[in-house]
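Here is one chain, start to finish.
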Amino acid sequence: MSLTEERINEMKEIFSMVDDDGDGSITRLQLGMCLRTMQYSISNNEINDLMKKFDSDKSGRINFPQLLQIIAATDQPNLTKQTQTILSALKLFDTQNDGRNISS
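Its structure:
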């Protein structure tokens, strides 16, 4: 699957919002949130399998290049208008307007 520059930028924005501590990596739970925000229908078992396959340093975290590998390896749909709506909603909770801190 070919990733367009626009799609990569959208994924980077979602990744940054889910990466709440801003260290450039996300946990298994955050990976699930990230993929589901991108409209991927994925189970917790599938998330665990992805972590085993793509967490090459066995840190329990996935960085953005690893996320791109995950996306490229799947056969799921592109980001949709619904994803953009979800992303806009997440921005409402980004109280520091930094793309990292989402609070309720």
